[in-house]
Specification:
By secondary structure, this protein is an alpha/beta fold. The chain is built from twelve helices and 13 strands.
């Protein structure tokens, strides 16, 4: 059996192979950017058309009572089912940044933890912008910024020492956006709790790709987006998780009308909801919220355990070929070797990373179009989504990368970059 036959065999034996048919695809394009924006589920069009034509188009405002007011609760319950949380511990709406602001602000001002915010050099930059803003707003001591020798793998001893010396509210990305390093969630939650601290986990590069269980990991607070591995669509709303033991102790810094205990009484005085709904602010974004449900249902049907198992297998398969075929050509592996400490993308780098990405996306001579993503100043991220990425996709990508470098095809492109890469 030759290599191509082996890869065909792996795809035929894939227990999730049928899920690829639930998504929209473009010709023979190989899409390895699901870690930035997931593919569109076929069911999404039907859901949105129903809202446009029947609910908004015909029923208009009556649709709020008929279905729209219940939509956030239904989506929250499904996210809770996915991540092992109670429905009343999940809020969905607004952006990840807004939800992180509300959650971090409420925790650091709650009186239950030291008034201190911590983060590390592997956290998503936008998260750190939010934390820096809260530090200035509340006149806290400067943001505790934990640095490692590289930004590719956390040094747990350094992280724990920082928490021990300066306890407080910590924000970490469960899966690092650069290297896909996957933090030991349960271990760090336990350590934080024993040192009078709490971790807010940003699940944006993790949810729908790794098997997250809030209760088994003793997680108390988290935020995450829905447009990556949950395939909710561009700008789809994010979610917030708060363990029910903390909810009564927290107050939202944004007192919006949907956070009121009786929003449609239009009272002059603000009275917050008693549950996690107190963190709601503006009117739910019905169109984008509804689009989340299709991708979420597919993920629930496939199951996070199966999704994670395939992700680890795809990653191991890809890592081996990178090591054997690409490293000798000047590529460098920027992700953890251990699949248990890696999310669902592998990052590589090369002196010509940007121009190599241009070759992948703009092929010559009938080669497949391959869509990775580039992160400054040298990273090529290859994101594999278990619901639709195949072993053949990864093999063809390796073959194409070899060809681009060996033929010096990257010289056909300049180094200019658009705003979105």
């Amino acid at each position: 059996m030759n290599l191509r036959e082996k890869v065909d065999h792996l795809d035929r034996d894939d227990p999730l192979r049928s899920f690829k048919d639930k998504f929209c695809h473009t010709g023979d394009e190989i899409y390895l950017d699901g870690n930035s924006l997931g593919k569109q589920p076929l069911q999404t069009k039907q859901i949105i058309n129903s809202i446009l034509n029947e609910q908004w188009g015909e029923k208009l405002v009556r649709s709020w009572n008929d279905s729209w007011l219940e939509l956030p609760k239904r989506i929250s319950a499904k996210i809770g089912s996915l991540l092992n949380a109670r429905p009343n511990e999940i809020f969905i709406g607004e952006s990840t940044s807004v939800n992180l602001y509300k959650l971090a602000y409420s925790l650091v001002t709650s009186g239950n933890f030291p008034r201190r915010l911590l983060t590390d050099s592997m956290n998503f930059p936008t998260d750190n912008y939010i934390l820096e803003g809260i530090v200035k707003q509340l006149n806290l001591e400067s943001l505790v910024f934990i640095s490692y020798k590289t930004d590719l793998e956390a040094e747990l001893t350094t992280l724990k020492e920082a928490i021990e010396k300066k306890p407080g509210v910590i924000c970490l990305s469960l899966v690092s956006y650069k290297s896909a390093y996957y933090y030991p969630m349960k271990e760090l939650n336990f350590f934080a709790k024993t040192h009078n601290s709490v971790i807010i986990w940003d699940l944006s590069h993790a949810v729908g790709a790794v098997d997250v269980d809030f209760k088994k990991t003793n997680t108390f607070a988290a935020v995450g987006c829905t447009y990556k591995y949950l395939n909710g669509g561009p700008g789809s709303p994010s979610f917030m998780y708060i363990d029910q033991s903390l909810i009564p102790l927290l107050s939202s810094p944004i007192q919006g009308w949907f956070g009121h205990i009786n929003p449609f009484d239009f009272e002059s005085k603000y009275s917050p909801s008693l549950g996690i709904e107190k963190f709601a602010a503006g009117t739910p974004q019905i169109l984008s919220l509804a689009a989340v449900e299709a991708g979420l249902d597919i993920t629930l049907e496939a199951g996070l355990k199966q999704i994670r198992q395939k992700s680890e297998k795809l990653g191991t398969f890809l890592m081996q070929f990178i090591r054997d075929e690409l490293v000798p050509l000047g590529f460098k592996i920027e992700s953890p070797e251990n699949p248990e400490r890696r999310g669902s993308h592998i990052t590589i780098s090369h002196n010509e990373s940007w121009r190599i990405c241009q070759c992948l996306q703009n092929p010559n001579n009938g080669q497949p179009k391959i869509i990775p993503d580039f992160r400054p100043n040298r990273f090529i991220r290859l994101g594999f989504a278990s619901l639709y990425t195949t072993y053949n996709d990864l093999l063809k990508t390796i073959e194409r990368l070899k060809e681009i470098v060996m033929d010096r095809e990257f010289l056909l492109h300049d180094r200019s970059r658009p705003k979105v890469t």
